[in-house]
Amino acid sequence: MKRIYYILIILAIANINICSKDIIVRPGGSIKSVVESSEAGDRVIVKEGFYKEYEIVINKSIELIGEGNPTIDGISKGEIIVIRADSVTVKGFYVNNSGFSGMRDYAAIRVENSRYCTISANKLVNNYFGIYLAGCNDCTVIYNEAMSNAISESSSGNGIHLWKCSNISILNNTITGHRDGIYFEFVTSSLVQNNSTFRNIRYGLHFMFSNGCDYENNVFTENGAGVAVMYTKNVKMINNRFENNWGANSYGLLLKDISDSFIYRNTFAGNTAGVYSEGVTRLNIVNNNFTANGYALKILGNCTDDTIKNNNFAGNTFDVTTNSSRNSNFFAGNYWDKYKGYDLDKDGTGDVSYRPVNLFSKIVEETPESVFLLRSFIVDLLDAAEKVVPVFIPETLIDDEPSMERVD
């Protein structure tokens, strides 16, 4: 009986392979009609050309492949491609001009309640949302470009948007001109790697309530407010670049109410604030470079049990600032270009502890207009007096093992 059972399975698989076929769509044809008439396992191959279509619904496991980058223009009517099946591939299209609605999140490509789907090598132009995944698992979004011309947060959507998803890989995508480049909400165990998000209205990357995710080797530059990580735990951010996110309320990286996370070997350069940290606990900030920021680290008093270790601080206006006279975090082994100590035993560690918070940074926080005194002699005098007898800055916010040279 078992032999018969296995033979039947093999015959069924063979039958599926025999029945699957390639279907060609040429200019003048209808992608939507061909998709509707296709069967599971088919490949729908769309030839180079221009197709005015929207609400192309894929509800079976097929491949939709563009040859020569055909354009699907949604003529601003609504969704363009909607996937409601497992194991679907959409690859090689220009997908332009989705609809806009204050009530619905219209997207160029939407994937709903699906698994094992791949969205690859598409170019998405002038859409409300670019790629939108909702209730999906084990999907991959790779080598796509999403470009829009967002004017305000209220009238624009996100480049890549995930809601209530798990095990998603967001790889090698480029996003610009949207509200947020990449947005995660209620997403778990997912990877964001080798993406570039720049000149987006709000955040290059924005994620909330998204635990156990990794963010590696991405570039976030010239976004309205940098990157935001909120209400999340067990996040790893490794080898990313946060650059030139500049403005009155802008940060390289905003951390709010996160815990048990790891920030390692990132570069923060040319930001208003490299890292702004509020309500954060058990965070490890290790081996990062903070260069030419207004503030390298802003750590509020409600941050506890964080470790700031083996980082490089160079060329920042202020290295560390806080709103509290107490410190519940650990600093050690960091390189500070403002450190004036000495190393008599030549072990690479300064013999004198370093206090990275200076009095003038607290004055500027309370009275921003005072920044015009930044290079004056009186500021140096105030800071020197405060370091001798700390009154206003946290006495325990101190690096007892400052590195004499940059840390690799």
**What's the structural domain tally?**
2
Distance between the termini: 65 Å
Number of helices: 4
Quaternary structure annotation? single chain
Percent helix: 10-25%
The CATH class label of the largest domain is: Mainly Beta
Low-pLDDT residue intervals, each spanning 5 or more residues:
1-17, 369-374
Determine the strand fraction and express it as a percent band: 35-45%
Shape: elongated
Radius of gyration: 26 Å
Primary descriptors:
408 residues; mainly beta; Pectate Lyase C-like; 2 domains; 25-stranded parallel β-sheet; 13-stranded parallel β-sheet; 38 strands; 36% strand; elongated; disordered N terminus
Helices, strands, pairings?
Blueprint (H helix, E strand, L loop, with lengths): L1 H18 L2 E4 L5 H7 L5 E4 L3 E3 L3 E3 L4 E4 L4 E3 L7 E3 L5 E3 L2 E3 L10 E6 L5 E3 L2 E3 L3 E6 L5 E3 L2 E3 L12 E4 L5 E3 L2 E3 L5 E4 L5 E3 L2 E3 L6 E4 L5 E3 L2 E3 L5 E7 L2 E3 L2 E3 L9 E12 L2 E3 L3 E6 L2 E6 L2 E3 L3 E5 L7 E3 L2 E3 L3 E4 L8 E3 L2 E2 L22 H8 L10 H12 L20
Parallel strand pairs: 1-2, 2-5, 3-6, 4-7, 5-8, 6-9, 7-10, 8-11, 9-12, 10-13, 11-14, 12-15, 13-16, 14-17, 15-18, 16-19, 17-20, 18-21, 19-22, 20-23, 21-24, 22-25, 23-26, 24-27, 25-28, 26-28, 27-29, 28-30, 28-31, 29-32, 30-33, 31-34, 32-35, 33-36, 34-37, 35-38
